[in-house]
Amino acid sequence: MKIEIWSDVMCPFCYIGKKNFEQALESLPFKDEIKVEWKSFQLDPTLEPSETKTTAEYFREKKGFPEEQAKQMTNQVVQMGKASGIDFNFEKALITNTFTAHKLLHLAKKHNKSSEMEEELFKAHFLEGKNVGDIDTLISLAVSLGINVEEARESLQSETFDYEINQDILEARNNGISGVPFFILNGKYGVSGAQPAEVFKNALIQTYEETVVAFKDVQNDLSCDSDGCSI
To answer: Where's the DSBA-like thioredoxin domain (predicted)?
Structure first.
């Protein structure tokens, strides 16, 4: 069963959704039959790759929110994060263009380490206050997961994964996805937002029973075709 997840590095609800989804996944007896594919999405592609903003600056300059309102909003997310095992540090987080970070995610996907890289990027951005638009920072994350430093540098400084990233974004648009996180379960159901683990669990079970189990039952049916009958 395939789960596609559209996400952006600077989206706190994507981090919460990841934690809740993984908690749900771990509780399922068929977890080893599930393949997770992370997809790229940019919440704000207008940001300059060379600039960084604090969370307060971003909310004030880009969204027009007063500092007190922005603080209330982030405090609410901090409490949600704690419930999912995340200690958000919005005072340290640096908002920047995430396109280069998505290149790293696609490189990690090539090495079957996309979920691990998602985690490292979220930690770097939300917990450690690292600039996830900075190439040297991203290379260090790649190396920490065993990816060759020169391969990482070449991938981040070239257009190697630009097509894949833009295709993910186009696919999201074609599927009517305007916000993240967004989960598509085996091409059948969509789940939007940082849902509780129990919601993910129920959705995964329903999808598994309706698509995977049903398909297995069809395969096991006694039937005849032009070559004869299976007995």
So the answer is: 3-204
* DSSP string of the chain, one letter each residue: -EEEEEE-TT-HHHHHHHHHHHHHHHT-TTGGG-EEEEEE--S-TTS-TT--EEHHHHIIIII---HHHHHHHHHHHHHHHHHTT----TTT-EE---HHHHHHHHHHHHTT-HHHHHHHHHIIIIIS---TT-HHHHHHHHHHTT--HHHHHHHHHSSTTHHHHHHHHHHHHHTT--SSSEEEETTTEEEESS--HHHHHHHHHHHIIIIIIHHHHHHHS--EETTEE--
Q: What is the mean pLDDT of residues 31-37?
A: 96
Mean pLDDT for the stretch of residues 134-152:
98
Q: How does pLDDT run across 10-22, given as a tens digit for each residue?
A: 999 999 999 999 9
Please tell me the pTM assigned to this model.
0.91
Q: Is the per-residue pLDDT at 86 higher than 70?
A: yes
For the chain, how far is it from start to end, CA to CA, in angstroms?
Answer: 29
